Amino acid sequence: MSGSAGFMKAWSALCRVPAGVRHGTHPGRDVARLSLKTGYARGRGPGLPDGPAPVTPRRRQACVFGHKMFGSPWGDGSAAETGQVSAMRCTAKAFTLVEILIVVIILAILAGVTIPQIVGVTDVSRETNLKENLSKIRAQLQVYRNQHDAFPAGDEFADQMTRYTNSQGEVADTEDEDHRYGPYLEQMPSNPVTGDGTVRTATDAGQHYPPGDADAGWWYNEVTGRFYADLTDQHIDEHGNRYNRF
Fold first, then answer.
1. How many whole angstroms separate alpha carbon 39 and alpha carbon 63?
2. N or C end of the chain: which has fewer CB within 10 A?
3. pLDDT surpassing 60 at residue 193
4. Which pTM does this prediction carry?
């Protein structure tokens, strides 16, 4: 027996199909099939195995390899028979419920750790921006006072701070010999906590801080020049300092 014929005989036995089936001489040629769902070789023709015969992974791999090299040992290599063997190449494995639950728990833990950190960074950024805006506006208020001998009027605060003014505080859109002061701010900034840029004005020199009864924009005392964030007392930093006292 030649080496090729010996290999074909051994391969046919490995695939649990009699050698005669490959050559089309076995009477049970048309009924020999390899079950793809159960992984068993079943026979119904004369001389074929009478019951399920397990096909081990090693045998399954050998059958697929031999099919690709030499054709189907139990048929003529038709599309139906070829598809049966090709479909055996891999078996999909789905995630179990326990594995899914473990992934969900891990994601929940990561969210619980990272979200507070993100919120904390956002709060610190708002506090820093708020302090920078207050510092800039207060500094420009002092410049305005030095040039006009008074603080801006409350009802014209935004205009007098963002446009050109004369010595009496009258505003203009362009600079000229009379309107030679300012602008002190490029634009009126918004409160970074609320996004509101309106200015609430106080005229009582004895009122030093905003009342803390609203979340709005800015609070300004036109007599003393005090300038604060117009916020309620519930806005505090990590040290307990209220935003409306910055």
1. 12
2. N
3. yes
4. 0.54
Q: Which residue has the tokens 């009379």?
A: 178
Assign 120 a pLDDT band (cuts: 50, 70, 90): low
What is the tens place of the pLDDT at every residue in 27-52? 444 434 444 444 444 444 444 444 44
